Amino acid sequence: MTKENVNGRGGRRYSACRVLVWFILVFATYELMVIQFLGGFVPDIEVDSKTGEKKIRRRPERHKKVVDGKVVMLSEIDGVLEGRLQLIDIVIPENALDGSEKRDRYGNVQGVFCVVEWDLQAEDPSAVPVFSDLTKNSEMCQSTRFVTDLYDVARQAESFGPKSIMSHHDHFRNKHARYIPPSVVVFHESRCGSTVVSNMLAAMAPHHSRVYSEALPPIKALQFCEYRENCIPSLHYELIHDVFYLMGRTYRAEEEQYVTYKIHAPGVRSIEAFTRAMPGSSWMFLYRNPVEVITSHLEGSVADQTVFDMKTPECLRDYGSKVQPLLLMEIVSAERRFIDSLSKEEYCAAYLATLCESAIREYERAEGSMTKRLFLNYENLPDKIWDSVLPHLGLELSGKRIHNLERWAAPYAKGANKYSMFHGDSEGKRSKASQIVKDAVDLFLSDRFGRLNALSKETLGD
């Protein structure tokens, strides 16, 4: 082999190495500049200018973390731990709380998480009056939906260390998740202005306050043991605690935050389980003149003979059922009546009595507790929210926040695209009430309504 041949082969190898090195440098530059830097300016939602179709971009490359000195991609679990994915639903197996699987923890409860666009609530609370509206309108929710074991992720969240995270997304840079305890949990009698209250609390401090209005996880966790005798209380409390803990996590760690929960009306029957699972958490019970509440329930329903488009009101959903809440049976029996002998109006009154009685009993059970427990009459809306309720909860109200509360005390929404202006309608409801309704109220609710009024004066100082 001649010297020229050797030099020729060496030259070709050198040229190939130079090409390879340049290729690596170009690829690295593209990764750094185009994907990591310029990619940050690409919106998560792309709209086709011709069809108007929206394309959702998950772009996980925007999030990385450091583990043992190595940069790796963030997973969905990391999204939960960082507070970017919110708990939107839970699935509870039938034997999850009876200790049959494990005695030291609840069973295989699955948590469903996704990205919730809280800006929608901050911009117009009345457009997303309940949490299901918010998740449905959160365009990133469906594409980021993630299911995992609730118990395991709650334990990981409790031990989560922010030092392990290195985010490449400006929105999350130098922000680490923390838990925000409930500012207040709102229980209510139904048809008593609770939607207006939740809208006001969401608008009080936009981008600093979030309201879970009738979200599924709390009500599912609270009510799971209502009809099950084999539930182990400690496991039930742990499940409730984990639900509120995970829903209260936020990545806005350095900002003042408020988290409020409005619980679906029947959930108040599990208020004792809530206070035992979440000791020290403030709660409020909204109520109204029972004649007005029953009239509101029965208007346009199966109990209203003047309409044809009839719907079953919430207070009659268990009417005629073989399985009845224990407290309802107790209240009916105390009046020497049988459930199957009750008229629809009487059953509705007895149902509402279970809600009022649950709040009253929990207040009396926890007498002497430092926990803030408030009772608010519908007649005192909306002014009492900023005059009494929020000051009692220790929330500071600036002039701007009071203005926000006043502004959103008026727009009222109940369901998608159904808007009106909130105004008291007590006189109209009472004028429509039949004598049968008034007699049902006298039987089951009058004394309890008087007790609620007394507690309102006692807890709000007026």
Beta strand %: 15-25%
Mean pLDDT: 84
Number of helices: 17
Query: Over all CA atoms, what is the radius of gyration?
Result: 28 Å
Low-confidence stretches: 58-62, 162-174, 304-309, 413-419
Which word captures the global form? elongated
Please identify the structural class as seen in this structure.
Answer: alpha/beta
The end-to-end distance, rounded to whole angstroms, is: 108 Å
Task: Report the count of strand segments.
Answer: 17
Helix percentage:
40-55%
Largest sheet: 5 strands, parallel
Query: What strand order characterises the main sheet?
Result: 11-13-10-14-15
Helix and strand arrangement:
Layout: H1 3-37, E1 45-47, E2 54-56, E3 63-67, E4 70-73, H2 76-81, E5 86-91, E6 110-114, H3 119-123, H4 131-137, E7 146-149, H5 150-158, E8 165-167, E9 178-179, E10 182-188, H6 194-203, E11 209-213, H7 216-223, H8 233-247, E12 249-250, E13 258-262, H9 271-277, E14 283-287, H10 290-298, H11 326-334, H12 344-365, E15 373-377, H13 383-392, H14 399-407, E16 411-413, E17 419-421, H15 426-432, H16 435-444, H17 446-460
Parallel strand pairs: 10-13, 10-14, 11-13, 14-15
Antiparallel strand pairs: 1-2, 3-4, 3-8, 5-6, 6-7, 9-12, 16-17
